[in-house]
Amino acid sequence: MRRIDALLVLMVLIWGANYSVIKHAFREIPPQPFNALRLMIASSVFLVAIRVSRRSAGAKPGRRPGVFFTPSPVSSRELWMLVWLGFIGHFVYQYCFVGGVDQTSVSNAALIIGITPVAVAVVSALLGRERIGPLHWLGAAVSLAGLYAVVGHGAGFGGATLRGDLLVMTSVACWVFYTLGATSLIARHSPLFVTGITMAIGGIPYVAATLPQIVRMDWSHVSAWTWISLVVSALLALNVAYLIWYTGVQKIGAARTSVYSNLVPVFAMTIAALWLGEPLDGTRILGALAVLSGVFLTRLGRKPPVVPIEE
After folding, report:
1. 106-113 and 162-181 are packed helices; what angle lies between their axes, rounded to 10 degrees?
2. Distance (Å, rounded) from C-alpha 43 to C-alpha 39?
3. Which residues contact 174 (CB under 8 A, 6 or more apart)?
4. What does the pLDDT average to over 204-231?
């Protein structure tokens, strides 16, 4: 396991634990206002970090972009890319995901989100961005089958959950295009810069759309634990985990990074069993092992990107 793999496992742990954290917070704060405040906190942290990074590094043209440092100026074309990626990847994605989870079952939402790695791999291959080898396809299939065993068995689509299912599907499409759309930007700019700027851009319409709910909220009844949950969720699930995600995209490509999202429901299930006492049976354990095996196969099947790292 390389360092980037260890970081991606940390990302999975953060996102997996985040389900249990926000589940309790939603009892006191509705999902959309909660998420709007998270985006405000995380965007502010990112913007400050970008400012500090630029001051400490200074101007060094020709230097390859790292995780924190962006050596290249932003062109007008890249500026428009940042705008639409922020709108798709943070406003539409976050709004649809939170709204979808609120209107469907956890099993349905997790199963739909589980198709993200396959969708990223297929679209990436069709666009010629990455060479997807046989082991990667096998790993994606094994991982998806394991995910179905963990959260998909018995999940029903349609009926009362149809609207929520469609919203979560829309969020998957947004995440796929956000991940692949930022690939060329990350070749010239740091994950910190791309993630922070797009989150700030997407956060503005998000807060505007949820402002009426925020104003109507009686914030005096929100407990200290819920406020702590909100801040911790913003710093870890949005700041740290998003930065790790795009570091992975920069280092090993979008298709292989996206496979780690299959692990999120597995860790969420495990943490919920340990923390909330939810049942953990043999089928779920076997499914979790299949998901882990699938991730391992995709790492063995890694091939270099078709597009050079630097343009």
Report:
1. 30
2. 6
3. 88, 89, 92, 93, 96
4. 93
Return all residues near 29 (Cβ < 8 A) that are at least 6 apart: 37, 217, 222, 226, 230
Cα angle: 118, vertex 105, 168; to 5 degrees? 40
Angle at 88 between CA 82 and CA 94, to 5 degrees: 120
Helix (H) or strand (E) holding 255: helix 254-259
The rounded distance, in Å, linking the Cα atoms of 106 and 272 is 12
CA gap 240, 192 in Å, rounded = 10
pLDDT tens for 3-37 read 888 888 899 889 888 878 887 888 899 999 999 99
Q: What is the rounded average pLDDT of the residues 73-91?
A: 89
At position 50, the amino acid (one-letter code) is I
The SS3 assignment for 106 reads helix
As given in the structure block, the two tokens for residue 189 are 């700019």
User: What is the 3-state composition of the chain as percent helix, strand, coil, each rounded to the nearest 5?
Assistant: 80, 0, 20
Helix (H, G, I), strand (E, B) or coil at 49: helix
Overall pTM surpassing 0.85 (yes/no)? no
Q: How far does CA 310 lie from the centroid of its chain?
A: 24
In order of 74, 80, 82, 83, 185, the CA distances from 77 in angstroms are 8, 5, 9, 10, 10
